Structure formats: structure tokens, C-alpha cells
């Protein structure tokens, strides 16, 4: 506004003040000197007005430049602060996102680990149960086999013992029968004399002893055979 007011100013004409002289005015033959002074004063006034105009114009421009520089500085500071705030906000967002991703990954890893542990434990239990079942089956099979072998051996031994006892009894009965027959046969000849009777009695005793030895041998053979059969089935 001041600049516009200065532009509208018109050059002022400064006239020197006049004061009355006590003497007589100079003769009118010197009007040229007065005209020269007027021109000088007018030029000085114009120069002063121009200087004032340029002074005020430069002052306004300088003030405008200062104000603009100040505004630019404030704007730069404001934008810098906004950039700092925005950078902090982005950094915080990035940190929060990273933290959330870390927590999510950590939770997923923990779930996968727990799942793997549970699967491993389940497989371990299954393997252990299978092994235990196989061991029980093998144990039962072994016990059953031993039981059958024992029963078979006991049965064979019982049969062999019964057979031996039966054969021994038959042999003993046969020996006794032979002894009785021999005794009866030799008794029928008792009338031949005492010498004949004595010889016959000795012969009966010899024959009876022979049958006893045969019976004992047969019994021993049956026992050995029974023992061998039992060892083969054990």
C-alpha cells in the first residue's frame, strides 16, 4: 500500500522562501540567473522524490523478501516436523507389523512343534504297544510250546512206565509160571531117588534165577527206551 501511495506522488517543486529586502530589488536585467536556480531546485526536488521512491520501494521489497524468507523457513520447519512425525509413524507401524509377524510366526512354530511332539509320542506309544503285543504273543507261544512238550513228555513217560511195569509183571509171571512148571516136572520124578530130587531142585533154582535175570534186563531195556523217547521230545 505504501508503494502504491509513493507511486501516486507527484514531484514537488520546492521554491526558495522569499523575504523582503530593505534595499531596492536588483535591476531587471538579470532574469536569466533566477531561471537557472529554478531549474536546479526542480532537478533537486525530482531527484529527492526519485530517491525517496526507490528507498521506499527497496525497503518494501526487502521487507517482503524477509517476510517471504521467514514464511519459507517456517514452512520448511513445519514440513520437516511433519516429515519427522511421518517417519516416526511409519517406523512405529513397521515395528508393530514386524512384532505382529514375529508373534504369529512364533505361535505357528510352537503349534507345529507341539503337533510334531504329539505325533511322535503317538507313534512311540503305537510302536511300544506293538512290541508289547508281539512279546506277549511270543511269550504265550513259548509257554504253550513248553506246556505241550511237557505234557507230551509226561504222557510218553507215563506210557513207557506203564509198558515197562506191564512187561515186567508179565515177565515175572512168566518166570513164576516156568518155575512152577519146572518144579512140578521135577517133583514128578521125586520117586527116582533122593539124588535125583536134589539135582532137580538145583536145576529149578538155576532156571528160576535165569528168568529173574532176563526179567531185570527187559525192564532195564524198557526204561532206557523210555528215557531216549522222552529226551527226543523235550
Describe the overall structure.
With 234 residues, this protein is mainly α. It is built from three helices and no strands. The chain has helices spanning 2-7, 31-187, 194-233. α2 (31-187) packs antiparallel against α3. The longest helix has 157 residues, at 31-187. The protein is rod-shaped, with a radius of gyration of 78 Å. The model is unreliable at 10-17 and 31-35 (pLDDT under 50).
How many helices does DSSP assign?
3
User: Which quaternary structure do these chains form?
Assistant: single chain
Low-pLDDT windows of residues? 10-17, 31-35
Q: Kindly state the number of beta strands.
A: 0
- Measure the end-to-end span: 135 Å
Region (Disordered): 67-110, 140-234
Biased composition (Basic and acidic residues): 67-81, 162-183, 204-216, 224-234
Protein name: Late embryogenesis abundant protein
Transmembrane segments: 38-56
Topology:
Elements: H1 2-7, H2 31-187, H3 194-233
How would you summarize this macromolecular structure in one to three sentences?
The protein is mainly α. The protein has helices at 2-7, 31-187, 194-233.
Name the features:
mainly alpha, 3 helices, single chain, rod-shaped
Amino acid at each position: 500500500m505504501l508503494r502504491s501511495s509513493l507511486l501516486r506522488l507527484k514531484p514537488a517543486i520546492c521554491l526558495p522562501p522569499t523575504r523582503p529586502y530593505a534595499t531596492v530589488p536588483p535591476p531587471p536585467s538579470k532574469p536569466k540567473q533566477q531561471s537557472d536556480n529554478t531549474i536546479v531546485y526542480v532537478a533537486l526536488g525530482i531527484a529527492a522524490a526519485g530517491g525517496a521512491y526507490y528507498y521506499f520501494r527497496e525497503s518494501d521489497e526487502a521487507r517482503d523478501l524477509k517476510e517471504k524468507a521467514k514464511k519459507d523457513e517456517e514452512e520448511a520447519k513445519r514440513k520437516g516436523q511433519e516429515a519427522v512425525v511421518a517417519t516416526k509413524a511409519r517406523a512405529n507401524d513397521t515395528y508393530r507389523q514386524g512384532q505382529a509377524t514375529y508373534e504369529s510366526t512364533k505361535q505357528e512354530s510352537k503349534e507345529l512343534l507341539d503337533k510334531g511332539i504329539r505325533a511322535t509320542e503317538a507313534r512311540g506309544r503305537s510302536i511300544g504297544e506293538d512290541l508289547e503285543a508281539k512279546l506277549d504273543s511270543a511269550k504265550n507261544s513259548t509257554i504253550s510250546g513248553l506246556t505241550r512238550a511237557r505234557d507230551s513228555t509226561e504222557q510218553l513217560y507215563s506210557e513207557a512206565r506203564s509198558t515197562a511195569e506191564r512187561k515186567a509183571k508179565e515177565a515175572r509171571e512168566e518166570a513164576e509160571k516156568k518155575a512152577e512148571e519146572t518144579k512140578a516136572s521135577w517133583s514128578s520124578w521125586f520117586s527116582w531117588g533122593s539124588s535125583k530130587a536134589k539135582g532137580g531142585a538145583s536145576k529149578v533154582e538155576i532156571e528160576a534165577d535165569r528168568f529173574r535175570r532176563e526179567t531185570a534186563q527187559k525192564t532195564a531195556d524198557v526204561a532206557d527206551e523210555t528215557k531216549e523217547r522222552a529226551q527226543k521230545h523235550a
